[in-house]
Design brief:
The longest helix has 40 residues, at 113-152. A hairpin with a 6-residue loop joins β1 and β2. The protein has helices at 19-26, 47-72, 75-78, 80-98, 113-152, 160-180, 187-217, 226-245, 250-278, 285-303, 313-330, 333-337, 340-354, 363-379; strands at 35-36, 43-44. It contains 14 helices and two strands. Helices cover 70% and strands 1% of the residues. α4 (80-98) packs across α5, α5 crosses α6 (160-180) and α9 packs across α10.
């Protein structure tokens, strides 16, 4: 059946036509130059020209199908040399096809169809080499590719140049494998690339995780709280080592980050209390603060209020008072009043802060006394606590 096309649309195809467009509309046996019929709007191809056109379309269709397959399999990454060669041949073929007009026996002496078929065969050869090379390079690049993909899924702002350099080295490494036909003798390059990619991954995660706690830590005064300062520092070191061991274990990293943050907050609140204690005690001020905070920590653990331990003394005592009130409402009041462990802890804390034996008072009275001590510590209040009324 004759196939017609508007004269102005003869064979000027865009270089940017996609493989799908070429395969479905250009390579399906559509019309080309042919003998004119009596119609001024259309022309009809001879049988020989149609056969030639179909052969060219089939060759170009094979080119596009193979190219799309290779692009989908990321041959540009796994076989950069052979795929680059194939891409250049494809670009050349598209230009040849744009200028192609079938030979109709009288108007043209050479249509270029043989050149297209020859060049398409060379393209197929390059693509086959690329597919074969991927079978060798893919296993050797698997760890590197995994790092690359992970890095692209996190904030790598500031590390772009370093990543691009590694990607360039990866292309060189893959090209060496292609040229040699194996990875033998390239173990050192492979190991170094994997190590450098992991180092980049670790550095990116370190910056993301450590930036805020490190800024907070740098505000601490080592001279005032040397012991607490070192505890916070060791906690940050522990977090850093965890990231270096496994930068992708986000659950463990977040847990360690929370612990470090609490150590820093605790050190900050201890510093404030040390300054207060030093105004009254000349030596071992930090040790005094740490001793009574250790007792506070024991109380917090007993009452299930460990989240209070990083707060200042006054806030912790207030939290303990609320927790005691909650226990009193949940359990038998007489049993709580006779809880020796709680009473002993409160009495020891009271002794450290006031120098008095508060064990004879009730739990509520002892907590009131701690509130008084906390208020005195913060604002110098001289109110008399309930236990001393």
């Amino acid at each position: 059946m004759p196939i017609t096309l508007p004269i102005k649309r003869q064979f000027k195809l865009s270089l940017k036509l996609s493989g799908v467009l070429l395969a479905t509309s250009m390579f399906s046996g559509c019309a080309s130059m042919a003998d004119f019929t009596n119609s001024a709007d259309s022309f009809v191809m001879s049988e020989a020209a149609l056969e030639e056109m179909n052969a060219v379309n089939a060759a170009m269709n094979a080119v596009e199908v193979l190219y799309q397959r290779g692009d989908k399999q990321d041959l540009a990454y796994y076989s950069p040399t052979n795929f680059k060669t194939a891409v250049k041949k494809r670009e050349k073929l598209l230009k040849m096809y744009e200028n192609y007009t079938p030979n109709n026996g009288g108007w043209f002496s050479n249509s270029g169809s043989e050149d297209i078929e020859t060049e398409s065969a060379l393209f197929v050869l390059s693509m086959n080499k690329a597919f074969q090379a991927k079978l060798i390079t893919a296993p050797l690049l698997s760890t590197i590719r995994d790092h690359d993909e992970f890095i692209h899924n996190v904030d790598m702002n500031g590390f772009g140049a370093r990543l691009r350099k590694l990607q360039g080295l990866t292309i060189q490494f893959a090209s060496l494998i292609e040229n040699r036909g194996s990875g033998l003798g390239l173990e050192h390059q492979k190991t170094k690339l994997e190590r450098d990619y992991k180092a980049l991954e670790i550095d990116i995660i370190k910056r993301k995780i450590l930036r805020l706690p490190t800024s907070e830590f740098n505000l601490l005064d080592q001279e005032i709280i040397p012991e607490s300062y070192n505890r916070a520092l060791n906690s940050l070191y522990s977090l850093e080592r965890l990231i270096e061991t496994d930068p992708r274990d986000n659950t463990a990293i977040q847990q360690k980050l929370t612990a470090s943050h609490n150590k820093i907050k605790q050190a900050d609140s201890i510093a404030k209390e040390v300054i207060w204690v030093k105004s009254r005690i000349e030596t071992s001020a930090e040790r005094v603060v740490i001793n009574y905070r250790d007792h506070l920590s024991s109380l917090n653990s007993y009452l299930g209020t460990e989240n209070l331990t990083s707060l200042d003394f006054q806030s912790q005592v207030s939290g303990i008072k609320d927790a005691v009130a909650s226990k009193l409402s949940q359990r038998d009041k007489e049993k709580v009043r006779n809880d020796l462990h709680l009473r002993n802890q409160l009495a020891e804390l009271g002794r450290l802060l006031t120098g008095q034996d508060m064990s004879k008072y009730s739990i509520s009275q002892q907590v009131d006394n701690l509130i008084f001590a906390a208020r005195t510590l913060v604002d110098g209040s001289v109110d008399t606590p309930l236990a001393q009324r």
